[in-house]
Amino acid sequence: MSTFPNSPKLVKGGLVLVDPDSAQVQRVVSLQYNADTLTRKLQAQESGGEGGAGRTEPTRFKGPAVETISFEADIDATDQLEFPDQHAAATAHGIAPQLAVLESLLHPGSAQLQRVHQQAGTGTLEIAPMLAPLLLFVWGKSRIVPVKLADFSITEEAFDPALNPIRAKVSFSLRVLTVDDLGFASKGGSLFMAYLQGKERLAGKVQPVSLSTLGITGI
């Protein structure tokens, strides 16, 4: 397939796993096709509540808004299966390897489970919960944000003769982690602050509007 020499390079969205202690990148997961839409839901964190029947207190923020990012992405091995000599993994397993990588975001590895089992067998009284890597959602260089995978589903839509999945739709629901969750001193906390400051810089680029635009002269 030919492309125009001056066409811009396509940047893919994806997820990055980072070691929570050393901040070293462990794995990069890129989406095969970028999602067509992102749904972002923000809910303010407010202190207080109803001041009485029919009364509401002024907004007082307790911390950053709770933000959830949801999207769907497609994974398809159809093009790869047209050239089996160049894509041996797709020919043998379809898209099962890509799905396995995504599923691994939701549970500890077998080595971790075996280690906990061995600790329990030696009589260890208290076994600390297994710490997962820090998960980052990357959607362009200006949107790098720490998240927790709140919900994930896979719909397998087509299969090869050996019943390997060759086309699927995956749905993500990501809860943005803030400094309330991670603290200011952590790598994730600093990334959230950079994300928040980036929004503030973008808001500053909007041209100011006068009250006359709203048909009034003063407040």
Shape: globular
Lateral strand order in the biggest sheet: 2-1-7-8-9-6-3
Subunit organisation of the chains: single chain
The low-confidence parts are: none
Total strands: the figure is: 9
Largest sheet: 7 strands, antiparallel
Structural class label = alpha+beta
Residues in helix, %: 10-25%
Average pLDDT, all residues: 89
What do these coordinates show?
Helix content is 24%, strand content 33%. With 219 residues, the chain is an alpha+beta fold. The strands form 2 sheets. Strands 2-1-7-8-9-6-3 form a 7-stranded antiparallel beta sheet. Strands 4-5 form a two-stranded antiparallel ribbon. Strand 4 (50-52) and strand 5 (55-56) form a beta hairpin. It has a domain at 10-47 and 65-105 and 131-195.
